[in-house]
Amino acid sequence: MQFKDHLRLMATYNSLMNAKLIALLTPLPDEALLENRGAFFGSILGTLNHLIVADLIWLNRFRPQPCGQVLTPIDALPKPKILADPLYPTLAELTPVRAELDALYIRFIDQLSDADIASPLSYKSATGGAFTKTAGLLLSHVFNHQTHHRGQITTLLSQMGLDIGVTDLAPLAPNIEVSQ
Predict the structure, then answer these.
(1) Whole-structure pTM over 0.85, yes or no?
(2) What is the end-to-end Cα distance of the chain in Å, rounded?
(3) Distance in angstroms (rounded) separating the CA atoms of residues 46 and 33
């Protein structure tokens, strides 16, 4: 498997799991999603907002890249100030943005060449540290970050008696289309 195929698989898995999570959360009242459950970002909705904030930060970092023109839809979205910015106060407001960002990652990766994936990207972290890493490594980080926080949410849901079901990549992979 080529690295681009791996990135597309991760982006597709990410989109599938985000949609699966949103589907489980949709019947719940916003009060349940806003309840502080002791997670790093407090509530389920706080954690979902953090993921969108992180995605907006990363997509804005990728935007100047040669294939970044596909990311122009992010120009109309908020520019978060901090990692815990509560951009969307309800799941109904957050859901279409989550789907849009997931689709943007897939379209962005589809545009990338091997040279784009290997190209360096310099950025500053939220705490001001300067870094340079390859675009491919940073995209891998984005999807790992999403998995980490979805795992926190699934723990909170489990404590509420809700089960998201299978989240492992391998059993889901036959249902995920990988570009050739």
Answers:
(1) yes
(2) 10
(3) 8
Examine the pLDDT at 74 and tell me if it is beyond 60: yes
Could you give the CA distance from residue 154 to residue 37 in angstroms, rounded to a whole number?
12
Fold of 3-175: Four Helix Bundle (Hemerythrin (Met), subunit A) (1.20.120)
Domain residue limits, the chain: 3-175
DSSP 89-137: SSHHHHHHHHHHHHHHHHHHHHH--HHHHHSEEEEE-TTS-EEEEEHHH
Q: Which tokens hold the place of 44?
A: 């389920």
CA pair distance 70, 84, nearest whole angstrom: 26
Q: Say whether 47 sits in a helix, a strand or coil.
A: helix
The kind and range of the H/E element at 151 are helix 135-159
Across the chain, mean pLDDT equals: 92
